[in-house]
Amino acid sequence: MIDYNFHLQQVEDQGYTLLERVVPLDFVERIRRRLFELAEAERANGRGWVYFNGTSQRPFNLMNKDTIFHEALLFEPMLEMMERILGHGFIMSNMTGNLLGPGAPEQPLHADTLAPVPQPYPEFPLYATALWFLDDWTAEGGAIQVVPRSHKLRRQPEHDRRYPDEINVSGPKGSMIVQHGCLWHGSGANRGNSWRAGLLPHFGRSYVRPQEDSVVSVRARNSSRPRRRASGNCSALTCGVSSMARNSRASATDQESR
Ligand SMILES: O=C(O)CCC(=O)C(=O)O
Q: Does the Cβ of 187 fall within 6 Å of ligand 1?
């Protein structure tokens, strides 16, 4: 049983919460395998977004690349947390993978509230991110670093500055961090010898600008895009994953949506 009140309180107080071993491991393995296949194919066709001196890679726009990510979008504990943080009708802003290879340096700290939003940010979150651990995340192997309670400052950190109260948030494969869109964080340096994979769905309140315009970027012929069942013609990507989830707990890949 997930204690949502506890986790929501953690997000409010600390800026993040860790849901340990919340995603079934067979689902984690399927997502991880698909992400690495996509990454390899994108490198092979020259379109891979490789960064951190070639050590790491980000497959973007995952909703357009495999329906397994539609299943991920409908993962109930994540939706429940997002609805509590962002309110009814929240939208998916983006879904990317982050594959940190051995030798990846630490990422500059930042908050996931989009740049056009003026600072100080509002007292309530406009955005929130879920980070799925597709491997064990360890301090040695590049687990995320966060500055607890920094969301209360309602601004971005200073560029390229590190802060003394920064901590690693590590945990076993299948865990998930849910974080407030104003929390300062960044991926840690990967000093290990294996990859550290993560799935990073990003969400916003119903009225904010998403990172990615899914209406345009998810091809119409990708007919299994998750739908809000109430109206039947409105994509969950833009019209509120929360109402869609409430109206149907069914998976995005069921017969109706094919
Ligand atoms: O993968 C991670 O640990 C965090 C990545 C991140 O913060 C980001 O891409 O905004």
A: yes
